[in-house]
Design brief:
Strand order of the largest sheet: 3-2-1-4-5-6-7
Oligomer: single chain
CATH class: Alpha Beta
Number of helices: 8
CATH topology: Rossmann fold
Largest sheet: 7 strands, parallel
Number of strands: 7
Order of helices and strands: EHEHEHEHEHEHHHE
Strand content: 15-25%
Distance between the termini: 43 Å
Shape: globular
Structural class: alpha/beta
Radius of gyration: 18 Å
Length: about 250
Amino acid sequence: MTLPTTPSFQLNGRRALVSGASSGIGLGAAVALAEAGAEVTLVARRLDPITDLATELTAKGLRATPLALDITDIAATETAVRANGPFDILVNSAGLARHTPALATSIADYDAATDLNVKAAYFLTRAVAAGLIAAKKPGSLINISSQMGHVGGIDRAVYCATKHALEGMTKSMAIEWGRHGIRVNTICPTFIRTPLAEQTLAIPERRAWIESMIKLGRVGEIEDVMGPVVFLASDAAALITGTSLLVDGGWTAD
């Protein structure tokens, strides 16, 4: 009998770019990819946090390089990806939320959310894919979406709109680039204990509502997303593209 071989979760020899790497899910993704063997380029607007992260990872014998970049600057982003790529893996974790009732949404808040969560994500993903196609290499492109890309939420009309857009963008790109061996997927977490989520978790009634909606009965931790990132980046997910990996504790199961 010839037994099948489990595909490797190791990422040795691969190069990854992680946006939003200075904190939260992006930081966790960067650590996870580096621990799995990838050489990680850490992207954020502020240099100091990603320099500190690169120093800590390097001290552990891992490979990481900081790259200060505002991904809403499309031209600068495309130039940086061309200069530093090609990247085998992308984790696009940069994002923001400005939660208000729909009737109270300002144009400035709408523009800020859509410029980063949709427009910047679109052109960053495209830039990494273009580098892979030019190099004739396969790759795994991962957009950090949200459970709110599949449902609605209180005071989250704009945020939900951006994440629903990210889901559609990801599916279309997966269809277009599949013939090049490029996989495109999203990870959709529930509320994860990050600086971004703390503004909501600090409100007792919202915290109680959140915990009632998460069937596993707890708010997520950054570590809950790290494994899924490595999985989608690795050969273990070789036939997975154009889909969403829901890390939501059962929120959307209803």
